[in-house]
């Protein structure tokens, strides 16, 4: 039988660059044979080299096509500069606050679609499911007088069940996800129209739970600054704790200077955002809920066994099956997550217009959701992405929309520009994937 070969050349040498075959590594375990080696995270080895290591790694990543979030961040800077030069109100506190609230509905739905994209699949039904969610809440709470919290639970639970049903046909029956969710798009769109009845519109109470999702602000300045402080403190403490655990295990850890530098960068962004929001109405509840969703889902994907199974499936279904992963269960659960977040996004859309109507979930919503995920950096080919990509992508889309609206440019042109940005992102994704494959990193 062929023996596995260690291809990590960093692990064959000690910190002085000389081989040390006689000493087992500290993290190899008590039963490790003399000369045994274990894989060390190359990112942490780079961090130990300081600034020179970062620069070298940055050049290697660019050469291999691993651009990360760099194109999106550059794009946001360009968008801000261009639209601010055209209209001085673009970077005003009021406009930025409105952008922050407007991006939540699409962003929530994009979080769910990212789970599906990580499998290398697609869900075309999320727009229709969001419309069903708003209709369910309106019919139950307004027409039938059901407690609004129960109506919300029914809507979100219904979204999860719809997603799981789609996942069942895909994972258990073997039907293509594209065909299943396309059928779902048509079916649930019709179901929503049936729920709303002949009138087609049910107005919601603007002071109710759903109504206040996009209208409630924490007006006390301490709320925004407090959230920024908590975020920075949690990031710092988690970074230091991770470094201590790695150091205790005898494996390369992130230097304290690295943790401090990243914490300072986060603090600058967080407190600047808090300052801007406090210049208008304060911290929007919608933004708080969106950030909470991003933190929870990012932790799920990056820090749990379930998240690793999703990435494994995106890399190779057959290899995942041979590794003992329940492929069917994971696939169904991922589509259930997409349905859940589609339903949550539908609640924010209903809150935005204080109604459930026949146009909910239609138009360009589906394309914007997929575009937000892809523009943010999630690969259409599966296996690569983070839920934070939803934040970056939806910021690009909504910023373009609001910037063009300030200039009085009509929606048709907005659609064309958004489509062009999406095409450019897909092309970049395809080219970088080809480059990574050539460099052996795909």
How confident is the prediction overall: mean pLDDT?
A: 84
Rg measurement, Å:
24 Å
Q: What shape does the CA trace take?
A: globular
- CA distance, first residue to last residue: 27 Å
Assigned CATH class of the largest domain: Mainly Alpha
Any overview of this molecule?
- The chain has 2 domains: 9-58, no CATH class; 71-219 and 281-438, ABC transporter involved in vitamin B12 uptake, BtuC, CATH 1.10.3470.
- Helix content is 68%, strand content 2%.
- The protein has 16 helices and 4 strands.
- The chain has helices at residues 42-48, 51-63, 70-86, 93-118, 126-143, 148-173, 177-196, 221-248, 256-278, 285-303, 305-315, 317-322, 327-353, 365-376, 388-406, 411-438, and strands at residues 201-203, 217-218, 283-284, 355-357.
- Residues 1-30 have low confidence and may be disordered.
Give the helix/strand layout.
Blueprint (H helix, E strand, L loop, with lengths): L41 H7 L2 H13 L6 H17 L6 H26 L7 H18 L4 H26 L3 H20 L4 E3 L13 E2 L2 H28 L7 H23 L4 E2 H19 L1 H11 L1 H6 L4 H27 L1 E3 L7 H12 L11 H19 L4 H28 L4
Antiparallel strand pairs: 1-4, 2-3
């Amino acid at each position: 039988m062929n023996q596995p070969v260690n291809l990590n050349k960093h692990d064959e040498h000690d910190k002085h660059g000389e081989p040390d075959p006689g000493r087992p590594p500290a993290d190899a375990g008590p039963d490790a044979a003399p000369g045994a080696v274990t894989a060390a995270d190359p990112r942490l080895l780079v961090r130990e080299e300081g600034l020179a290591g970062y620069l070298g790694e940055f050049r290697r990543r660019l050469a291999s096509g691993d651009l990360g979030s760099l194109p999106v961040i550059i794009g946001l800077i360009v968008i801000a500069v261009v639209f601010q030069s055209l209209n001085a109100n673009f970077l005003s506190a009021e406009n930025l606050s409105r952008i922050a609230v407007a991006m939540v509905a699409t962003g929530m739905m994009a979080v769910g679609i990212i789970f599906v994209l990580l499998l290398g699949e697609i869900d075309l039904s999320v727009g229709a499911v969001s419309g069903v969610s708003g209709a369910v809440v309106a019919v139950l709470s307004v027409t039938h007088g059901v407690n609004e919290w129960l109506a919300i639970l029914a809507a979100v639970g219904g979204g999860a069940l719809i997603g799981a049903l789609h996942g069942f046909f895909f994972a258990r029956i073997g039907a293509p996800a594209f065909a299943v969710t396309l059928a779902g798009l048509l079916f649930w769109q019709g179901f929503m129209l049936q729920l709303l009845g002949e009138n087609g519109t049910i107005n919601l109470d603007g002071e109710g739970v759903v109504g206040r999702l996009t209208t409630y602000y924490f007006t006390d300045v301490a709320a925004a600054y407090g959230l920024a402080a908590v975020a920075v403190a949690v990031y710092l403490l988690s970074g230091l704790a991770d470094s201590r655990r790695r150091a205790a295990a005898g494996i390369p850890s992130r230097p304290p200077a690295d943790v401090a530098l990243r914490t300072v960068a986060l603090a600058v962004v967080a407190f600047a955002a808090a300052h801007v929001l406090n210049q208008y109405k304060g911290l929007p509840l919608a933004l708080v809920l969106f950030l909470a969703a991003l933190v929870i889902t990012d932790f799920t994907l990056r820090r749990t066994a379930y998240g690793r199974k999703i990435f494994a499936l995106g890399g190779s279904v057959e290899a995942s099956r041979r590794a003992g992963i329940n492929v069917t269960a994971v696939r169904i659960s991922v589509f259930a997550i997409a349905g859940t977040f589609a339903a949550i996004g539908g609640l924010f859309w209903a809150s935005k217009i204080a109604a459930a109507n026949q146009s909910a979930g239609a138009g360009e919503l589906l394309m914007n959701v997929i575009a937000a995920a892809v523009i943010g950096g999630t690969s259409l080919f599966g296996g690569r992405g983070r839920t934070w990509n939803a934040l970056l992508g939806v910021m690009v889309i909504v910023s373009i929309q609001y910037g063009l609206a300030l200039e009085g440019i009509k929606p048709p042109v907005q659609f064309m520009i958004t489509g062009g940005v999406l095409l450019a992102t897909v092309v970049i994704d395809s080219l970088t994937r080809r480059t990574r494959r050539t460099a052996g990193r795909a």
